[in-house]
From TrEMBL, chains A, B:
Keywords: Amino-acid biosynthesis, Branched-chain amino acid biosynthesis, Cytoplasm, Leucine biosynthesis, Magnesium, Manganese, Metal-binding, NAD, Oxidoreductase. Pathway: Amino-acid biosynthesis; L-leucine biosynthesis; L-leucine from 3-methyl-2-oxobutanoate: step 3/4. PANTHER family: 3-ISOPROPYLMALATE DEHYDROGENASE. This is 3-isopropylmalate dehydrogenase. It comes from the Bacteria. Catalyzes the oxidation of 3-carboxy-2-hydroxy-4-methylpentanoate (3-isopropylmalate) to 3-carboxy-4-methyl-2-oxopentanoate. The product decarboxylates to 4-methyl-2 oxopentanoate. It is an enzyme of class 1 (oxidoreductase). The gene is leuB. Belongs to the isocitrate and isopropylmalate dehydrogenases family. LeuB type 1 subfamily.
Length: 346, 346
């Protein structure tokens, strides 16, 4: 299988190097093409998502992505900023479904701001829609008749978009504890009311899954109060952005958590949930576990290699249990030393 | 001064009764008119915000509000649901600025899901815009050419709306520790980009306040990781809805926290941040502290009675320190016993 490697900006290259080492150690039949993306692509090729990168991404069976984000690009017009690369990849490749598991690794109770007895209960997956919502609706600036500047963004979902992500939510819940919580703001938003109506329609095909609904403000409270109550959460692009970052932090370091963004044929982009962390880039301080675990998700979801994925995940869990700690976890290990620790277990 | 009392649904009447007792004990020159709102208004007068209620609200100097929300109204069309009453009051009365302080009361470390050393640092105010954003833009359902149902909501802000709430944010920060964090999603939304541009313009008038910017997904993480880093957060209606509920929960029980919604002349609506809690309504289990503290905010912000407000707040803090606990705080006190405890200190 062909893997597109997109290390990107900041700590992206460092963590992807370690993920690659782990993949290499498993002796799978994989080939790689590495291409620039984000700020580094803008600086070398004039665009955060160059055609040449998109070509490789289209041809690849799966994409392993580091991070994008580069402060030197802050004043560029929106379409040239690094973040547009990830939004563009999601849209061009039809990666509509984002899976974000959040669990607390044994031994990392101290890394979470939550009380250990609360944090230990966290074992959830957020299923976030990635191709619609206020992210991709018409947006712009206008000057009103009275001369005032105004910014606007249209939020919307149609029933097809909701149905396909709802199915992913129900399927994910079915393979876990059978509890799906759909998060919306139906008491205020028409987009949410349609969302809720369609999710209820889809529920008819999943009698074995228990469906509940929660307003997003309440969900943000409940994720702090008692995150253990959730099995699978399905939600739109904007609410998913907020809640999945919140849930990751509840589980401790965001240096530990991977994500998968999938199309409807199993092709996917895999990336750590952390960003490019320019403040520590190039210093060997970044935690490569999220990238390594993203490689595991890739093996499982896009390459049919569930056993290899299990091995990687077990190795990371074991290394952590044995005390391996990068700076974000309160330790002093370098990025490559953490890679060594995982490889040592493997 | 004339106070409009709007007890509303669920536990609203119980907690407002206690707030009223506390106000009465202070011998202030206040008169009250009590009017129905929410589900109870719908059931008696056919509308969640009847004209007669709105009239009193308009005439009053300040509004003390319990809660709205009534499960028997769940299947009504949107415009008749209880929540529309609070949205209508905010809009009709021009209550554009919502202040939500969040602090951990001494003795309530156990009530927070956060580690005590993290929770104890919380001392922040969220300033949320209440009259614009995707809450009040055009919204609806439509059927697309291919027959698919679609829901949409227009998010927007104009520069006047941003400027006036930004000023409230800066003024609030100036009276506290001088740190203002503006939360948006400017990497994706044009509405947010305008928001950020205007906040930066307003900052020129407040050289004594340190302004920072944070994306909403990061803010949701940081409120868990290290809420003590925030002094004042200013944000739009939707992000404010989510983050303020999250922040309250970080601080422990939502039974303890009040809010103020103000117009530009100091008139305000004061309400607990908790909802109508239909599951415990009428059982004397509700914590009246948030309502009592809302009355204190009313005295301070709308009635120029800062000393009386201080007295109430000190009395609540003292009662809690002395061990007064309703069920939400892990105790067994009834609603009126908690009222007695506060009155006892006063
Ligand atoms: C970088 C940004 C555009 C992106 C998003 O908002 O989707 C990020 O926050 C994420 O969650 O992957
Ligand atoms: C009831 C609802 C419409 C309201 C809101 O979303 O503003 C509530 O959540 C709040 O925060 O006061």
């Amino acid at each position: 299988a062909l893997i597109a490697l997109l290390p990107g900006d900041g700590i992206g290259p460092e963590v992807i190097t370690q993920a690659r080492r782990v993949l290499d150690a498993l002796d799978l039949d994989l080939t790689y093409e590495e291409v620039p993306v984000g700020g580094v692509a803008y600086h070398t090729l004039g665009h955060p998502l160059p055609e040449s990168t998109l070509d490789v991404a289209r041809r690849a069976d799966a994409l392993l992505f580091g991070a994008v984000g580069d402060p030197t690009c802050d004043n560029l017009e929106r379409s040239l900023r690094p973040e547009q690369a990830i939004l563009g990849l999601r849209k061009h490749l039809g990666l509509f479904s984002n899976l974000r598991p959040a669990t607390l690794f044994e031994g990392l109770e101290d890394a979470s701001a939550l009380k250990p007895e609360v944090a230990r209960q966290i074992d959830l997956v957020i299923v976030r829609e990635l191709n619609g919502d206020v992210y991709f609706g018409e947006k712009g600036r206008r000057v009103r008749p009275d001369g005032a500047r105004e910014g606007y963004d249209i939020m919307s979902y149609d029933e097809h978009e909701v149905r396909r992500i709802a199915r992913v939510g129900f399927e994910t819940a079915r393979k876990r504890r059978g509890q799906l919580c759909s998060v919306d703001k139906a008491n205020v938003l028409e987009t949410s009311q349609l969302w809720r109506d369609v999710v209820i329609e889809v529920a008819a095909d999943y009698p074995d899954v228990t469906l509940s609904h929660m307003y997003v403000d309440n969900a943000a409270m409940q994720l702090v109060r008692n995150p253990g109550q959730f099995d699978v959460i399905v939600t739109g692009n904007l609410f998913g952005d907020i809640l999945s970052d919140q849930a990751s932090m509840c589980a401790g370091s965001i240096g530990m958590l991977p994500s998968a963004s999938l199309d409807d044929a199993g092709k996917g982009l895999y990336e750590p949930i952390h960003g490019s962390a320019p403040d520590i880039a190039g210093q060997g301080k970044a935690n490569p576990c999220a990238a390594i675990l993203s490689a595991a998700l890739m093996l499982r979801h896009s390459l049919g290699q569930a056993a290899a994925a299990d091995r990687i995940e077990a190795a990371v869990a074991r290394a952590i249990r044995d005390g391996a700690r990068t700076a974000d976890l309160g330790g002093t290990m370098t990025t490559s030393a953490m890679g060594d620790a995982v490889l040592g277990v493997l």
